[in-house]
Amino acid sequence: MATTTKMRPRALVRASGGPRYAVALAVDALGTGLLRPFLLLYGVTVLRLSAPATGIAMTVGVVVGLVCMPAVGRWLDRGARSTVVAASMLVRVVGVALLLATPAGHVGLFATAALVLGVGNQAWPAAHAALVATVAHGRERDAALAAGRALRNAALGVGALIATVCLAGGTTALRALAVVTGLAYLVAAGLAWSVHLYAQPAAASPQSGDAEPAPRMRALLAANVIYVFCLNVPEIALPLVLVTQLHASPVWSAAVFVANTVLVVTLQVPLTVLMSRFSRRTVLALAGVVLAASYLGFLAATSLGRGWGAPAVAVVSVVCTLGEIIYAGSATALVTHLAPPHALGRALARFELSTGFGLAVSPMALTALAPHGPTALWGSLTAVTLVSASAVAKERGQEMRQGDS
């Protein structure tokens, strides 16, 4: 059993990469919050593309962007850290520039911009995790990763709020938001690069040689695809259920989303530190159980129908968010713990591939299940999440070799 970590704010900032890097994260997330939630609206309103064409272009951009992950993993394993983080931000600068250069009605160039933005968005999490893993170790690393997520969510929320207020300006405001987003990415890239963090590539063990692969973690990666669905529940599944099945006011959907953001910002670090007394794999399996319980709660809440249904869904969403927080605080930390130093980049790249795939398929899965009723939606999510939690708990080969603590 592990010892509970206690982190002071100053130590947490240092373990997360230092003050300049923390500012880079905040500026980058602020820029992302300004445009990313409204990229579909930009395509439809500013570029006058059809909604289906815009959505397909964005989805293809995300999926194809995952192709870059093996190269990112190899780059990280050669010792690069802050350079990869800065590169992921600079790539998004190029994506925003392409977006601004796209003429109205040109879906091909919009798709290219979405692809370039997707490459940057997919590369960043692995690069950030590798950087933190180089600066911090053990449970301090877990807390630092949690702090980075909390900071990023806070800045994303502020950016989205500013963008929402600015939307009254129409297409001119959307173009201005894109310009500010590009400038924010550029500033963040400069700050991240100025950290100048580089890790000496770890020497491979004499027994395995230089070609020792990253741990496969097959059960963990497969389970992660399902776990990731929880990230899209507040944004996709709950608004769909509240509006189309319970016929509730859209205000309830907004309230759930705001509550989710506030809880992640305020509880991500404390809850991760609290859970540090248990093994990371145990915590990750527990996250699956909590998420499954919340899905059953949503099933019960929707059975209440109009009136009490919407408030009940809002209450249960708190449980779902707690499961999300526990998952986010343990999943990446477990990967950084299991991976040998010389294969950390490749392990994180594989993990990000599973995360990106889950994020890509979950909207399609959720919207396909919802029309078949609450039992089909929440019952299916409960079943597959419990199976995933069980698979995570049973995959103990890595812990037997390294000892998860």
From TrEMBL:
Q: How does it sit in the membrane?
A: Multi-pass membrane protein
Q: Which InterPro entries is this protein grouped with?
A: MFS, MFS_trans_sf, MFS_Transporters
Residues that span the membrane, as ranges: 21-43, 49-72, 84-104, 110-138, 150-170, 176-199, 220-244, 250-271, 283-304, 310-335, 347-370, 376-393
Do the record's keywords include Membrane? yes
Q: Which Gene3D superfamilies match?
A: MFS general substrate transporter like domains
The organism is: Streptomyces spectabilis
- Tell where it localizes: Cell membrane
Recorded GO MF terms: transmembrane transporter activity
Q: Which UniProt keywords apply?
A: Cell membrane, Membrane, Transmembrane, Transmembrane helix, Transport
What superkingdom heads the lineage? Answer: Bacteria
Pfam families to which the protein is assigned, alphabetical: MFS_1
Name this protein carries in UniProt: MFS family permease
**Gene Ontology cellular component annotations, sorted alphabetically:** plasma membrane
